[in-house]
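Predict fold of Phosphoglycerate mutase-like protein; 483 aa.
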Amino acid sequence: MPSITPLILVLASLASLAPSTQAETVLGVYIFHRHGDRTSKSFAPTTLTNLGYQQVYSSGEFYRARYIESNASSPIYGVSPDVVKNSQLSVQAPVDTVLQTSAASFLQALYPPVGNTETLANGTRIESGLQFIPVSAVATAASGTDSENNVWLQGQSNCQNAILSSNSYFYSQEYLDKLSSTAGFYKSILPVINGTFTAETDTFKNAYGIYDLVHVSTIHNSSIPSSDLLTDEALFQLRTLADDHEYKLAFNASEPIRAISGSTLAAQIVQDLNSTIVGKSKAPISIEFGAYASFFSFFGLAQLPKASENFTGLVDYASSMVFELVTNATVSKTSYPSNDQISVRFLFSNGTAAGNPLTPYPLFGGDQSSTLIPWTGFVDGMNKFAIGDQVHWCNACGNSTGVCASAADSTASSTSSKSSPSSSGGVSKVVAGVIGALVTLAVVFGLEALIMLVGGLRLVNKKRLSGHGTPENAGAASVATKA
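Predicted 3D structure, encoded as tokens:
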């Protein structure tokens, strides 16, 4: 029998000549996260529940195991595994108790306590294990201030055209038909909610508020009035009607301005990921807690319903979407990938990631085989709808007063707002000013509110003056960017 040793040697030699495949490296991530379980918006102030704390904490544990700890499944390049380096993280949440508390809870799990002893000059030993990570408080178009105490929040974006677009839904034939066809259903469950809603307000107009009240009650209340009316079919219908109601308020393909929160979020995502690349992963983690309507708006703009119709439904508590910067190139202190060696992967978990799969999906209408997008292609796709500088925002929103006064005659400059990244890895300054501009807007409107309060003035909804109704619980011409 002839020896096979020479053949083995030949095969081994050929294998040594074959190009090796570099394992994928995660260069950085952007995580957009919803808060955990909370009390009902029908009874302000809303607060994060113990269940909500547990949900976001377990999500933090999941992302720690995925990206941070020493044996992480997809470790982020250069990230500190145990003792937090605050320079490596950027964490934001709106000026809202539920969202701020959710962010803090998440971070407690992302970097859990470590043994830390400090000895004072007099010899006293001080022990502390907690790690403190600052959460920047921002007022943005994505969520607004005190988001969880309001049902109708689009007005908090201060974007006039977005407000008008969302309000126009309530005069569409589609809405009027749904209002009529569901009247009987809502009447049938009135005994369940008549402590909060009346026969006049118990309609599809308040689909989300009604669903929210019932949903929270089924989680926390040991008894519910006329609970026999809440059959599985009735609960399902409440949820799907709320899905439809909220998605239509957050996104309309023919009126992209309605999705202003998704547009500003897209700019923030590109800005933060680009900063990771430019800084060579010195600050690789960006986390933002925000409203569920921002998910809706972004889903619509990024054409995610083409990947799954589930992207037109309300995201569950503690849901998260993730944008991973990845490369197959060698990464070291002396070698960092070029733009053409970097890709982006989008993933989504409906509910806390600890109990729901974090699944990749294609952006921009691509098929399931295209979940990994080259960096430049990702930026081009996002910049088709991203709004990230003051001039572009003011022009798109039709605002011409306050901080937008100087932008009214600067429409020509807004054409630069969709510029592609430079060859060095940078994007144009379009995406650099969104948070600052919108925080300034919030301050301006806050000062206006203070002046009105001191002066005894009040806002009056023009539609109400003219006899046209707006949704119950609405502020002055305000509709939905809800959390």
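The first strand starts at residue 25 and ends at 33.
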